[in-house]
Design a protein that fits this description.
single chain; mainly alpha
Length: 304
């Protein structure tokens, strides 16, 4: 069933969009990521202009994240204090990211920069996550090899310490704020929730237990991406409502399925699956950058 998207100015199959939304929703509930790192490239692949894909994809991230975080709240696996600190940094980062996005639009380099950002970030993070996850899986299989509850590093020596009871941590608020700012910038420029950066940062940098990482990540992603997509819509009219609705329908259902599946898998298995997914998307984007395009020139709607 072909439908016309008025803002994107292209025709697409409605069931394809619902399916994409559902797939990303499953990823959201399963891994604690908003799914923007997946939905935005997929929208590129089916012909949605980059500026529209970034702004509208954030809408779907909001919907799937809300659906996922509600499921985690019921299980009491959300650290609201940590989420609030991450959110404060995320809002500042979103404002900065929208400003950078505007500059890139004026220079006509949005498409190239966004794709390069995906390749670099996804490649680095995917490799680090896969390496660490394999190590963790091997350690867990060794009898009598128990990991310490808290492993202190340089982050734990920073000033301004606060107790995060749900996570069992007593650390400085500065590292979570910086993580939030970085995620906010990425949300605005790349149309992502930033979970693929935030989840490993929360686990390996802040030392949060995996049981609260997913829910807390989704809590922060919900508000940051909502703020980001609102700024894009008001400032540049780059949010296609019809596209957003179809993605949201699939995303909300998919997030519930993903949350149920996630409860049945071990933490180490989840990390390996997420790392492989990140690397797969990175590989596809990198391939597209090096392959000769079918059309050397493309006409895209102007952003006013």
């Amino acid at each position: 069933m072909q439908i016309y998207l008025p803002i994107a100015e292209v025709s697409v199959n409605a069931f394809t969009l619902i399916g994409l939304g559902g797939l990303v929703g499953v990823m959201s509930g399963l891994f604690g990521v908003g799914g923007g790192f997946l939905i935005t490239p997929l929208l590129f692949f089916i012909g949605i202009p980059p500026a529209i894909a970034v702004a509208t994809g954030a809408n779907q991230v909001v919907a799937s994240s809300v659906s996922g975080v509600l499921a985690h709240v019921k299980r009491k696996s959300v650290d609201f204090r940590m989420g609030g600190v991450l959110l404060a940094g995320g809002l500042v980062g979103s404002w900065m990211g929208v400003w950078v996005f505007t500059l890139l639009q004026e220079l006509g380099q949005v498409d190239l920069v966004v794709q390069l950002c995906y390749v670099v970030f996804l490649g680095l993070i995917g490799m680090m996550m896969l390496q660490e996850s394999i190590r963790a899986l091997r350690r867990s299989r060794k009898p009598g090899n128990r990991k310490r509850l808290h492993q202190h590093n340089w982050v734990h020596r920073w000033p301004g310490k606060v107790k995060f009871r749900a996570s069992g941590l007593y650390i400085s608020v500065i590292p979570p704020l910086l993580v939030g700012v970085a995620v906010g910038v990425l949300a605005a420029i790349m149309g992502v929730g930033g979970g693929f950066i935030m989840v490993p940062a929360m686990i390996y940098l802040l030392g949060m237990p995996t049981r609260v990482v997913v829910g807390t990540s989704l809590f922060q992603i919900t508000f940051v991406t909502a703020f980001t997509t609102l700024m894009h819509a008001v400032s540049y009219n780059t949010v296609d409502i019809m596209l957003a609705v179809l993605l949201i329908v699939g995303g909300v259902v998919g997030a519930q399925i993903g949350t149920t599946l996630g409860a049945k898998l071990r933490a180490e298995q989840l990390r390996i699956l997420l790392a492989l997914l990140v690397l797969a998307v990175c590989g596809k984007l990198a391939l597209d950058l090096f392959l000769t395009p079918d059309d050397f020139y493309a006409i895209q709607p102007g952003i006013g």
